[in-house]
Fold each of these.
Amino acid sequence: MTSPYHHSDGEMLLMSGFKKQMLYISLISLFVVACLFGEIISFYGEFSHYSSVTAVQRGIKPKKVIVNSVSKQRHSRVMCLDSEECSAQNSNLQQPLRPPREPTVDITSSKTRLSTSSSDVRDKDGNLCELSDPSYQTKTSAPSTCNVIHELGFDLARFRYLAKGAFKMAWDMEYFDEDGNEKHYVMKTAVLGKIKSSAKQLGDNTRDALIMERAGRAPNSHEANVLPMYQYCAITALVPFASRQPLDKYLKSGKIISAREMYHLAVQAARGLYQMQAYKDGMATYAHADVKPPQFLVFDPPQDSEEDFPLLQLNDFNRGRYIKRSVNNKEPCAFQMCGVHHKGSTYRSPEEYKDCADQSAAIDVFSLGSVFFFLLSNGLKPYFQSSYNDAVKDILHGRLPELPDSSDYKEYLYYSNDKADFAIERSKHPLFIALQDVMKQCWSFKPEDRPTSLEVVQMLEENLLKLSKIRNV
């Protein structure tokens, strides 16, 4: 016969085992919660500087009337697609030219001290430096339209891969408006394998969007030379579709452009740089730091334009730097870009090939001169005959590249005799000679000897005006 105490002992054992299991589960749960709490604290600390972004900038707009899946935001820069209201808002396409100002800071030698804090920059006398345009401090990002980006989705039936760079990739997006008309836009986002949850990655993209939001204009005028942004969310932006590809591919298609088209493209490239640098009080407030032919997008001529040459717009601003000035004398303070590898590019200024050297907005002007060389040579990069290492040595010693002769066109661009002869004949055109002269000024070895982007625009436009009185250019 079973003892009455047998059942009670068994129940006690079962209860003891159950309590142990509950204890284990509780401990595991506490560990998981602690880990999650630590991750939240780390994430908040890393992105706390974005806490000043308003709800409107995050795309939170209650009681907003939705027009269609793309045309939602109606502020001054993020444009509503297919909207007359937005066209009216952006009718002023030309940035006023301000009086030129010569740079006075010699950045070939180190005169600026950079502390461990990126905001604590001092001039050569130890005075603090502040942003040349204080509005960059109060508005750190373009207005966000994440809801629109998410609603667009990523249906491969509507997307076509275009290209990718070191950190960005581009997709051709097919879109049908309310009338059923097919249109194309470009969705720029981060390379999928290089997405990082870091303040730097997000900061680069927000800076890129902010410059497009401030300086960009719809590609409907030859004076709108900075790529605009239609929609934006964190690492993704919706921008116009360049019907004629980037400038490097446009010229390498085998077509020899006329001296007239070449010069007008050069004028637009200079305007784009000036507009992007966003002058304030006579000085640039932003440096692109990566000016080269692939950064310029070529569009068809605007529909209402009487000119037949293409429209050019500058893009890709995520690598740039805000220009700061001394609180003491308001002169520009230099910045440094340490540990940057240029991957074979020969479009850069001498100071960019010295690690941690002082730099300024003048680096963009030198690179613009290299873009002029690309146009003058109909698609050849500077020092096309040399290896990368030899080219860098020449740049650092101030030895300038020479334009190609007839044999170079045949060897490097595979031109026929007739095409090579035409290219050489083009070099005798007054516009060709005028652009070559401006290019050499942009290539001044010392940064303080280079013209500003504003002065480059003025020189090119003055030459064009003078020559138009002599002949039809």
Note: Residues 1-8, 41-118 have pLDDT under 50 and may be disordered.
Amino acid sequence: MCFEGKPVALNDTHTSINPPHGLCLEKVGNGSYLNMVAHPDGSNRAFFSNQMGKVWLATIPDEGSGGQLELDVSSPFVDLTDQVYFDTQFGMMGMAFHPNFANNGRFFASFNCDKDKWSGCNGVCSCNSNVNCDPSKLGTDNGAQPCQYQTVIAEYTANGTASQPSSTSAKSTEVRRIFTMGLPFTSQHGGQILFGPNDGYLYFMMGDGGGSGDPYNFAQNKKSLLGKIMRLDINNIPSASEISKLGLWGSYSIPKDNPFSEDKDLQPEIWALGLRNPWRCSFDSERPSYFFCADVGEDLYEEVDLITKGGNYGWRVYEGPYLFTPTESPGGNTSLNSINPIPPILGYNHSEVNKNEGSASITGGYVYRSMTDPCMYGRYLYGDLYAGAIWAAIEEPENSGNFTTSKIPFSCAHDSPIQCDSVPGSSLPALGYIYSFGGDNKKDVYILASTGVCRVVRPSRCSYTCSLEKATTTPPSPSPSHASCWSNLSGYLFLHLSSFLLLLISFM
């Protein structure tokens, strides 16, 4: 395995191989969010954003304090709803704060726009002659013209001067357009952005653009930015003439060590390719060369990939470990022998998690690095949108790149600051739909669900046994209404369909 062209750096932190007895949660907020980003100043604050385009700055209570997220719904940090096109499949997909945000106030939003409704929605169509695609032959998709909807990364600034950014609010006026690209279809457009912890570059996760089976084979097309992870330098901005000369999609420059330096066929923005719809990626905070991305499958398989420089993850030649046969191929095919795909490190068949609905959609998470639950330490947590399932994966043997995973039972602490609802007719705690995961500056992990925000807490608060936990208080007795549960919540989930879920349904 390699990352940034160098051997993966591993450590020898010991993690117990036996799976933890369970995941204990406390509910600290009622809001429904797609994104959570810890404040770069290292404080106990974090930013939360919803699909419509509002961002809030919240203060996070200490674990076990009985406190809730301190967040004023009526006073967002910034309101971008005038720029964001919000519909069942579109909205604000990601946000990222410059590593030096505390000093320069720079932050970035990734969202969708409608060129029929906003003059700022003016990107080049991703279906063009350079990628063997003619937009006039695409037809409409859910009533939309090809590239009517676009993906945008825009830069904003906190109020005040760059040397004294405001800590509580920001201007909704765009400072700089980093990226704009028209989308061929109305689904599978990813949109997460995050800064690399070591290199300071902006990583942009882009889906294959939609359509059944990626009909134009964008994910394997090295000239297309669809179905890719991009790596952009937003600290060195070229002039307008240079942007035009280089054929860039916005105001960024290309890191010199991007894979195009070794593969001249690749567009220079590309870091990795062969992805269908990456939904939530993260760097391991203690091993930043480990870059995990969950990739939503088509018909059969959900996967987690370990992203490396120039890596090809197989879609649409493969769907996970299975060969994929597209129903139509107006954009041509990629031969099996022409690529060397990297297999997923983790995954599951759709039939394993949701036999009733026959569907699944993976939600990527984080490597757990908090000592709040020491028995979870070093495990990669991830979930499934529809089934409410949560897994914890561990690399074994250490330093091998081989991962094993276990589905983890979860409970809600009976002393949770906000009472957890139960599945009707059951003792199961109701997470609803798992949209995303988040993390704070203490490295605690959060679940962003349709029913609210939950934090992973000490196992003893749910009467789970963890021999590594140093309990300072008597563990509470379990509440009958919040007993341990396994993940099959499918019958209940469809009763709690929300407008936010419709966004993620489209990812299928």
Note: The chain has a mean pLDDT of 89.
Amino acid sequence: MRKLWPCWHWGVAAVLHSPPQPPTATALALTVGAGAGAGSIVHLPSFVGVGITSVLPDPFPGGGSGGHFAGTKRGKVRRVELPTDAAIGDAIDAVEVRDVDAAGGGGAEGRGGARIYPIFSMLTLPNGDLLTGGGDRYVAAWRRKSSREDGEGGAIVREQAREWEEADRLGPHTGWVKDLAAWTRRDGTAVVFSIGCNRVEVWSTRGSAHVDTTYQHERTLMVESSVDMGSTLSSDLLCLATYIERRADGSTDDVVENCLLAGGVDGRVHRWRGQDDDGTIDEAGTFRAHDGRVNALAACEETNVLFSAGNDGQICCWTMDGDPSGWTCTSLDLGPRHDMSKQVDGTHSTAKVMSLCVVEDQSERALVAAGTSCGRIYLVDITKSEDGSPRLKVVGCGSIDGSEAGKECVVHALCCGRRGRVRDVIVGHSDGLSVWTIDNDEL
């Protein structure tokens, strides 16, 4: 059984070298599965009371630190660095908290005094660009500032890793940009997908150099209502996921296709396939996944399963074989685990599963983290049975109590990062930012 270790955070302000402060009283009380090591998690003190609506690992951190982006309800993107040399159980101090200014509708003060919009989604591309989608119906493409210098072999581009500038704005969309996803073509260019109501906007990158990258709108993928599937009202989309499908074609190699998945308010999940050769994107199946909204999707390519999370309190694990209409499902109901004693208005009896992230993905097993509308976080272990069907088991759980009495936290977003031999589950919630640390040796 894997161990779950405590991860304590000391004070950080939005400047470098801030003096440390003790953790605040707002804590995430962690209860783990039988046989696992006990631990506790506290908020980063500088984030207490700051609603976090999206989180994302930075794949290009500088200074030897584990970097993450946190998008706020107030329209800021904050880049947080954590040290990589901390041992399990050590007190951990964030190296830096730095704002990416004017993200997703104008930053903390808005563009020109305009309305402030939340950062609902974030994405990094292989060229280093950071994309943010917000309530202003735009996707902002952020790029580290760079300078050109003359060298013997021609111009040399030097990046200023700590400074960002807006390189492009994609939109407007027909609604809030609730999620972003992308796949990479064989030539290294990217195809970006962004949600706006019942549409998926498709963008492609152009340019061979990082500083010369531009974005071009290619097409719109539409989702319509379906009487046959019981979807007669809104078909708005909420979440995206991409994966690579490898299908045996009867010859020497597998045919590799990029696949896009989208889940929406009507409980359906839609799939499209993309071809590198001619750039076409075709519909490739739709199925009903949940009773109510599909809030999050996460694809595990090695395990060949898709996870979906819904308002019905279910985590569903779909085996991705053949047409989606034939995918088999193993579900886990997290609704009954909701602590009814914290229910204030009595209007709901089931915890909504709001967010997912993949912690581990191997051919025969996976580990997924899930966050709920009542502040609960679960670690779910997935293994393959003898007949190949997945088996789901909760191996760890915890809960976040909000800083306001009687108010539950909503876990809006999760992501996973590595620091040496440990992994962090970064938890973005309605009352701030927290970290759950897992020992790699116990995975």
Note: The longest helix spans residues 103-106.
Amino acid sequence: MAHFFAIGLEARLAGTIDEFYNQIVDTRANQTDMLYAYHIVQIASPFPTAADYFTHFTILNAVGKTSKLHIIHLGIDFGYQWPRLMQALSEKKGTLSPSLRITGIDVPEIEQIEEVGRRLIAYARSFGIPFEYKAIQAKLEEVCVEDVNIEKDELVIVICFHRMETLGEEMDLMNSPKNRVLDIIRRINPNIFIQGITNISFSGALFPPRFKQAIQHYSALFDFFDTNVPRDNKARKLIENFVWAREAINVIACEGPKRTQRCETYKQWNARNLRAGFEQLPLDHFVITKIKEMGNNHNKSFFVEGDNEWLLLGWKGRTIKAISTWRPKQL
């Protein structure tokens, strides 16, 4: 951690932000390596497993006797969450599996998003789930609602985990990228909007408090890796070099449009969502209990609790992730 922070500070002080930041950003890991790294993160911490459990529980509870389910995933990445949901849908007792549509929206090369679709189609076939997939390559704040193609009688679920945290600076507070995405979601008018965020405030303009927050946040992340994953583990190095290093250097070295890491706390997101015309859905206490069990099975230093209808996940008393469910206010 100290090495990456030193790179960020050196670049900031020397005025050579592009040179130092590009050394990190221009290198990329392949899909196979990152999927392997994700698997190790699942072993090291309950955060990904908890997020998947929360998402699947929420969707399965909402499905009921619905015959059509449409998941709109903003920032689908590798789509690793959905095979388990397909299996759960195929095993629902007493009802036929609903037809499932997934609209995957992301900004990488369209080939990657379409490859995700091919893998999901193969999984759906193996589980006997009627399935359609559509890939949309677009910035989240520029998605056209009509392209999503909502059909009648669909149960519509919008998922967005962490992607709104990297949408850039907010010169126009009323028409900021984050608020534009929320407006797009509101116009899609889903039955449920599931949101996952990193609980840290990197959106402020002042550097000293941002730097202090970064030290606290990344100290917690590196500490739980030190506790749970050997330092020479290949997957650990991938996460540290290709995810955390990029984030930390961006937070420390970059300003203006180049500073893409602009996370907000769950309390900030709560206020933003309410202003954008959403109402919060209650947090199921059964979910809290089950995810607490997951955390305890990993390490007693992980904690899980609920606050203001947000599920909070953390390490040694510091909240790192938060998840909540919303829907557009019904006028």
Note: The CA atoms of residues 90 and 128 lie 7 Å apart.
